């Protein structure tokens, strides 16, 4: 990785909320999964969220759908053309989303997905895709 890209990634990590920075960095450093594997994880998690939303009224299914759509769009539209570092950022955001016990706990409260959306917004801003920004 060249020094300019390294610095850009470090700046991005510095802008990620401190409470989730270590978890996100861990996902960033994992070996890269395939686009197909990540989409499969997102699809499985969408089912889990929908089931939880039906059972518990405080799970924000709409926000979950927005996050899932954003992640899937990045994978389908950006993945093949992105540099390794950007792919790692996309993967980190996707894996953070499908991790139930991340910063706020996705199903712990009505705001449990807010941190996932905020992280994804950092990534789409970095990738120059403001059209994918999620309203929280």
Describe the model.
This protein has helices at about 5-15, 20-30, 35-55, 60-75, 85-100, 115-125. It has about 140 residues and is mostly helical. Helix 5 runs antiparallel to helix 6. The longest helix has 21 residues, at about 35-55. The protein starts with a helix and ends in a 10-residue tail after the last helix.
In short:
This protein has six helices and no strands. The protein is mainly α. It is globular, with a radius of gyration of 14 Å.
Regions with little confidence, pLDDT below 50 for 5+ residues = none
> Radius of gyration from the CA trace?
14 Å
H/E element string?
HHHHHH
Alpha carbon gap, first and last residue: 33 Å
Enumerate how many helices there are, as a single number: 6
Structural shape:
globular
Mean pLDDT: 86
Number of strands: 0
Task: Give the helix/strand class.
Answer: mainly alpha
Helix content: 55-70%
Which band does the percent of strand residues land in?
under 5%
* Major sheet summary line: none
